[in-house]
């Protein structure tokens, strides 16, 4: 019998645990010729900002071993165009949509939350904490527990009570659990991790940085061990908080690894650039792997790797 | 617009050397059917467990109806991905997505068309030349490269076009210099009504400047680094002036790769122009 793949972000039920990661699925329209976006657990939008943003100069991308460095700079048309043209397209098709939001100040985050909270088709808000805080010398919110907590609490206050708020964390911190706790204390119902760690490549032929911006976010299978570590640590400290695991997932096995570490949902990102059908493939593979291992429900596998090591027989711990 | 793109597992039919380049023919029926000159395809490289995740984009050189539809690509080995591709042999499977992008617009009435290609960018021009000739257009070619072995398709251009002007940087074939150097003379001789150009960004900028002097329209197919080719990754953006006069960072993969030359701000490629939509400074928050 196929395993029950339903999962929950706070009280919101998703039919399956596979999401797209922010910034990797375009507006949904680009993916649609290759894969049915309504069959995903949810589609996460690129980070929506208040004003239009032109982004960073090119080159914006450099390929690294099993990874991709990018410095796109949150290019987008701004929240008004998003509400006018992009969200309705997803809503009409019945796609569940997690809207990622980004701002330079706490006030900007809460203004975005207010604008989006009553828009039809928004399933949850994801707070992109890896934005520079213009009120604090450009330090990113995600690296400071009090700044992260403050943003999350402002978004939680501004958003409708029944719209889940997800905080997206970066692995570029000394203690990811401290940030996670601050976000949960600020009102986050779920956490997603990991955002891209910052990396750099130099083109030895041109003898210049490969990206125009110098540094960029590293994604792809190269960062999966970082994601597993962060999900593991946060699930151990906050076992009741739903975690969306992401970072270099390319197969069902990769997704299962994050589930076993404690993720109740898994997002695919960079792999969509390689294979736009990857989300559906990963879902099918994860289903098969759970079935092979005798699970009736995805929920029974979440965080299972945390069980004490002497209990090796699954019959013992699976209800 | 042609039909929407498809993802298919094609089968390699042949891999040949053509001068300094590799020419790959793949059986890919869904793509060949929908192809219009100017379209490109992307290829996943490195096999199913690859460590190179970005797809490689190639202009389509030609499509043929054989075996239900074949697609021919011309490329040069520039890194690990293209090296892997050059090692493919007949019957190997290949993950292809296409046809992608905005194809070349064709003139409604017969016109004199000058096709300008630099290096292997010239490969994209031959299907266009066929389509133009079917519409009773006069076709002339200007093809150039660094050296004679890198001038793609010189023989075919000579055979099919009214005139074919060849240039090489080292003078080993045709006129010494670049395609841009000979362009004013060729435009004047052929009385070209429209120019189509493929090649590196700097060449396209030069071609566009010459066409502006002659006040003739130019369609350019740009090459910009892309990760996905289908509009997801936002890495292949180019500053392009829209119909409303506003410059936007425009994706070459879905809004291009073919643009009207005068709309592309070639001098500002690699920057965010200060007056671009959403440029820093125009945005209160950052």
Could you please describe the fold and organization of this structure?
Chain A is an alpha/beta fold and 319 residues long. Chain A is built from nine helices and 18 strands. Chain A has helices at 79-93, 106-117, 145-158, 176-185, 224-237, 252-261, 271-274, 278-292, 314-317; strands at residues 7-9, 12-14, 18-20, 43-44, 61-64, 67-70, 97-101, 122-128, 132-133, 139-140, 165-169, 190-193, 198-200, 202-203, 208-209, 215-219, 243-246, 265-268. The longest helix of chain A is centred in the first third of the chain and has 15 residues, at 79-93. Chain B folds into three domains: 6-100, Elongation Factor Tu (Ef-tu), domain 3; 104-221, Nucleotide-binding domain of ferredoxin-NADP reductase (FNR) module (Rossmann fold, 3-Layer(aba) Sandwich), CATH 3.40.50; 225-279, no CATH class. Chain B is built from six helices and 15 strands. Chain B has a seven-stranded mixed sheet. In chain B, helix 5 runs parallel beside helix 6 (201-214). At the A-B interface, strand 6 and helix 7 of A face loops of B.
Helix/strand layout:
The complex is a heterodimer of chains A (319) and B (286).
Chain A: E1 7-9, E2 12-14, E3 18-20, E4 43-44, E5 61-64, E6 67-70, H1 79-93, E7 97-101, H2 106-117, E8 122-128, E9 132-133, E10 139-140, H3 145-158, E11 165-169, H4 176-185, E12 190-193, E13 198-200, E14 202-203, E15 208-209, E16 215-219, H5 224-237, E17 243-246, H6 252-261, E18 265-268, H7 271-274, H8 278-292, H9 314-317
Parallel strand pairs in A: 3-18, 4-7, 7-8, 8-11, 11-12, 12-17, 17-18
Antiparallel strand pairs in A: 1-2, 5-6, 6-16, 9-10, 13-16, 14-15
Helix pairs in contact in A: 2-3, 3-4, 4-5, 5-6, 6-8
Chain B: E1 6-18, E2 21-27, H1 29-34, E3 40-43, E4 56-64, E5 70-75, H2 80-86, E6 93-100, E7 112-118, H3 125-134, E8 138-145, H4 154-160, E9 164-168, E10 175-176, H5 179-190, E11 194-198, H6 201-214, E12 218-221, E13 237-241, E14 247-251, E15 258-260
Parallel strand pairs in B: 7-8, 7-11, 8-9, 9-10, 11-12
Antiparallel strand pairs in B: 1-2, 1-6, 2-5, 3-4, 3-6, 4-5, 12-15, 13-14
Helix pairs in contact in B: 5-6
């Amino acid at each position: 019998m196929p395993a029950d793949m339903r999962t929950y972000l706070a009280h919101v039920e998703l039919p399956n645990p596979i999401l797209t990661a922010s910034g990797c699925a375009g507006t949904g329209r680009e993916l649609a010729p290759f894969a049915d976006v309504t069959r995903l657990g949810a589609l996460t939008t690129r980070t929506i900002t208040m004003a239009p943003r032109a982004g960073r100069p090119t080159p914006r991308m450099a390929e690294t071993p099993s990874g991709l460095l990018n410095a796109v700079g949150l290019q987008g048309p701004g929240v008004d165009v998003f509400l006018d043209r992009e969200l309705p397209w997803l809503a009409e098709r019945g796609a569940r949509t997690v809207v990622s939001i980004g701002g330079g100040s706490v006030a900007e985050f809460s203004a975005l939350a207010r604008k989006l909270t009553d828009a039809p088709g928004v399933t949850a808000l994801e707070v992109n904490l890896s934005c520079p805080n213009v009120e604090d010398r450009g330090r990113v919110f995600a690296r400071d527990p009090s700044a992260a907590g403050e943003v999350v609490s402002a978004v939680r206050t501004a958003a409708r009570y029944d719209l889940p708020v997800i905080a997206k964390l970066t692995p570029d911190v000394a203690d990811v659990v401290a940030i996670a706790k601050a976000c949960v204390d600020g009102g986050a119902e779920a956490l997603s991790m990991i955002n891209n760690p910052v990396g750099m490549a130099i083109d030895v032929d041109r003898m210049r940085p490969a990206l125009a911006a110098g540094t960029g976010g590293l994604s792809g299978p190269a960062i999966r061990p970082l994601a597993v570590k962060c999900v593991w640590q946060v699930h151990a400290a906050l076992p009741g908080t739903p975690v969306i695991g992401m970072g270099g997932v390319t197969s069902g096995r990769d997704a299962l690894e994050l589930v076993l570490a404690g993720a109740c949902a898994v997002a695919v990102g960079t792999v969509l650039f390689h294979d736009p059908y990857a989300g559906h493939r990963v879902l099918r593979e994860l289903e098969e792997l759970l079935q092979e291992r005798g699970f009736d429900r995805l929920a029974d596998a979440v965080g299972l790797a945390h069980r004490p090591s002497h209990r090796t027989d699954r019959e013992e711990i699976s209800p | 617009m042609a039909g929407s793109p498809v993802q298919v597992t094609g089968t390699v039919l042949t891999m040949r050397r053509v001068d300094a380049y590799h020419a790959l023919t793949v059986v890919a029926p869904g793509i060949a059917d929908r192809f219009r000159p100017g379209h490109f395809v992307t290829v996943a490289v490195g096999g199913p467990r690859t460590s190179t995740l970005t797809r490689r984009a190639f202009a389509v050189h030609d499509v043929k109806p054989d075996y239900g539809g074949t697609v021919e690509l011309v490329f040069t080995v520039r890194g690990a991905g293209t090296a892997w591709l050059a090692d493919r042999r007949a019957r190997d499977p290949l993950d292809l997505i296409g046809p992608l992008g905005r194809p070349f617009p064709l003139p409604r009435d017969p016109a004199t068309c000058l096709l300008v290609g630099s290096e292997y960018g010239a490969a994209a021009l031959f299907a266009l030349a066929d389509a133009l000739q079917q519409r009773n257009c006069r076709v002339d070619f200007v093809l150039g490269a660094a050296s004679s072995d890198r001038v793609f398709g010189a023989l075919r251009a000579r055979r099919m076009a009214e005139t074919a002007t060849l240039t090489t940087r080292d003078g080993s074939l045709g006129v010494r210099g670049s395609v841009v150097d000979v362009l004013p003379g060729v435009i004047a001789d052929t009385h070209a009504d429209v120019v189509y150009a493929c090649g590196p960004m700097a060449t396209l900028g030069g071609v566009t400047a010459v066409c502006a002097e002659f006040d003739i329209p130019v369609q350019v197919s740009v090459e910009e680094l892309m990760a996905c080719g289908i509009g997801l990754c936002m890495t292949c953006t180019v500053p392009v002036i829209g119909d409303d006069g506003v410059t936007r960072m425009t994706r070459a993969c879905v809004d291009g790769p073919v643009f009207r030359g005068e709309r592309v701000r070639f001098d500002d490629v690699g920057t965010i122009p200060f007056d671009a939509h959403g440029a820093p400074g125009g945005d209160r928050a950052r």
